[in-house]
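Entry for the shared binder. Reason: the reviewer on the internal report wants the predicted structure included alongside the sequence.
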Amino acid sequence: MPTTSTATLTERYISATVRSLPPEVQDDVRAELEASIADAVEARREQGEDPQSAERAVIVELGDPGVLAAGYADRPLQLIGPKYYLAWWRLLKVLLWIVPTFAAAGVALGKVFEFATFGETVGAVATVIVLSIVHVGFWTTLVFAILERTATAPRWSWNPDRLPDPSDPGPRRADLIAAVVFLVAAAGAILWDVLRGFVRDDGVPVPILDPALWPVGMGVLLALMVGELVLAVAVYRARRWTTGAAVVNTLLAVAFVVFALYLLLSDQLVNPGFLEYLAVEHAAGLAEADARAAEQGGVMNVLSVILGVVIVGSGLWDAIDGWIKAMRARRS
């Protein structure tokens, strides 16, 4: 037979409140609640309410014991509160622009080298975009949720100096972060290609870029990336694009395009060992792709043309973008 609890409503409420509190404060909270509930019940009884109704009304006014306990323990009841919400949201927006883009580009490039069909490439790219969005959202939120519960106070604070000028078209911090992430990722990809390899043959890395480029050729490419990084930092510190910055940006873009095209046209960009690997490991796919692209000179010629267009297009856009920003800053 079920037993009937003899504990009063007040005792049950106080027990539910203090059970999740640290042991060292439970007795003090229990005594405080007993006194405050007793006083509130007595005040209602003096107004003519019966004891049970008065006790129940006081308990209802106090609310959920879990919420009351969180107040005593100074414990947040939200995943991310106002203390970190804006920092979380700003960082999340930046990462959601950058990470899925680079992940999709990397997967698409890998599928091209695997001679995958268009459908397979689209499916792989769509999958990695969805997964990267989920992972970025989950891990970023998890970090800030932990900070919400462990950090005593944020290490940054807002001040009026951070107010933007409505007419200022200058570079934002997000622009600098995006430039830094892109350049670091590009440099990391070059180093990963030679040290670990995006393509491996029986566990042995097969670099896509010609190892003969080291150290001079790769040194030039990395130096150009460092130049772009220094320019991005300088523009951010100056808070505006100037004509001089646009000129430097154009020179860096032209230098990159000329150097990369020279390597591509002289067959010094792609590792011959990588081409041999494709010819052996993907002979059937390569033959089929060659047959389809016979009128264009073969699949390797098509890939070279595509890569050349990408190189020229990216350099041209980089130069034009710098001049557009400089002209906007000048008009303001």
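Summary line for the report: The first strand starts at residue 200 and ends at 201.
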